[in-house]
Amino acid sequence: MPNTAADNPVINPASIDEAHVHVVAAIIWKQKERRQFLIAQRQKGKHLQDYWEFPGGKLEPAESPRQALRRELEEEVGIRPANASPYMRVYYRYPDCNILLDTWVVDEYQGVVEPLEGQALLWIDASQARLYRFPAADDPVIEAIKSSEKAKTRCLP
């Protein structure tokens, strides 16, 4: 893998040759309106506390990204994805750890979204993302959502 600075993410890397944490995250589109997606606020005491992020978390040993996505969404926000598809992967070097952010689009789900871990949750449209502080690894994902035809279509009044 080419050497990158902490502020230079690698989008959709083919391989990673260094230690990293594999994280899945969901871009969950609101089912009825389909104009907004869900963000969650990181809790106090966690890395990047108070930042906003897409719901998700770390893969467990021997767990696939799809399995981790399902488990994390059930644990964090009480839903089970009925339709999830890979979106983009971002490899990012923070000063204290390297992460592979594996994002998935969830267009359909079962259950009711609720904050099962006491975190704040918000539904926002792509144009509102600039109002919230996201981890640097999420920035390319936010930009991709904002520039996608899907988001443009969904965010029209």
Overall mean confidence score, pLDDT: 89
- The spatial strand order of the largest sheet comes to 1-6-7-2-5
Largest β sheet strand count, sense and barrel closure = 5 strands, mixed
Q: Total strand count, please? A: 8
Radius of gyration: 15 Å
Strand content: 25-35%
Helix content: 10-25%
State the CATH superfamily name: Nucleoside Triphosphate Pyrophosphohydrolase
Please state the second-level CATH architecture.
Alpha-Beta Complex
The CATH top-level class label:
Alpha Beta
> Could you say how many structural domains there are in total?
1
The string of secondary-structure elements, in order, is EEEEEHEEEHH
Q: The CATH topology is what?
A: Nucleoside Triphosphate Pyrophosphohydrolase
Q: Low-confidence spans: pLDDT under 50, at least 5 residues?
A: 1-5
Oligomer: single chain
Give the termini distance in whole angstroms.
43 Å
Q: State the helix count.
A: 3
- Principal-axis shape: globular
Task: Decide which structural class fits the backbone.
Answer: alpha+beta
List keywords for this structure.
single chain, 157 residues, alpha+beta, Nucleoside Triphosphate Pyrophosphohydrolase, five-stranded mixed sheet, three-stranded antiparallel sheet, 3 helices, 8 strands, globular
Element layout with pairings:
Layout: E1 10-11, E2 21-28, E3 37-41, E4 52-53, E5 56-58, H1 65-77, E6 79-93, E7 98-111, E8 121-124, H2 139-147, H3 149-154
Parallel strand pairs: 2-7
Antiparallel strand pairs: 1-6, 2-5, 3-4, 3-8, 6-7
Q: Would you mind describing this structure in some detail?
A:
This protein has a single domain (10-154), classed as Nucleoside Triphosphate Pyrophosphohydrolase (Alpha-Beta Complex), CATH 3.90.79.10. Helices cover 18% and strands 34% of the residues. The protein has helices at residues 65-77, 139-147, 149-154, and strands at 10-11, 21-28, 37-41, 52-53, 56-58, 79-93, 98-111, 121-124. The strands form two sheets. It has a five-stranded mixed β-sheet with strand order 1-6-7-2-5, covered by helices on one side. Strands 4-3-8 form a three-stranded antiparallel β-sheet, with no helix packed on it. Residues 1-5 have low confidence and may be disordered.
